[in-house]
Amino acid sequence: MRRYSWLLAVLGGVAVLSFLSVAVFTSTGPDTTWSTVGGVGVALVALWMWLDRDALARASATRGARYTVTSLTLVVLAAGIAVAVNVLAHRYDKRWDLTASRQYSLSEQSVQVVRNLDRDVKVLAFFSRGSQEEANFKDRIESYTELSDHLSVEWIDPLLDPRKAREHDITSAAGTVILVSGDDEQRLETDFGEEALTNALIRLTSGEEHTVCFTSGHGELDPDDDATVAGLGGIVTKMEGQNYKAEKVLLAREGGVPERCEMLVAADPEKDWLPAEREMLAAYVAGGGKFLLLLEPTHAPGLAADMARYGITVGDDVVLEQNPNYALAGGDPSYIILDPQSFDHHEITDAIKGAVLLRLVRSVSKGDDVKGIRVQELAHTTEQGWAETSLGTDAVAQPDPGQDIIGNVPLMAVAEVDDPETIQVGDRTIGERAGALDAILGTPAEAAPAEAPPVERKKGGRVLVIGDVDFATNMLIDQFANQDLFLNSVAWMVGEENQVSIRPNEAARGTLTMNLFQGIILWLTALLFVPGLAVVGALVTWLRRRNR
Amino acid sequence: MKAVLAIARREIDAYFASPLGWVSLSAFLVVTGFMYASILSDFSQQSTTAAFNPYMADQYNLNNWVLPGFFGNWSVILLFIAPAISMRMFSEDMRQRSFELLLSSPVSSGEIVLGKYLGALGFLGLMFGATAHYVLILYWLGTPDPGVLASSYLAVFLLAASFIALGMLASAFTVNQVVAFVTTFGALLVLWVLSWTESILPGTAGTVLSAASMLSHLDQLTKGLLHLEDAAYFAGFIGFFLFATQQRIESMRWR
Question: How far is B208 from chain A (nearest CA, A)?
Answer without folding.
Answer: 9
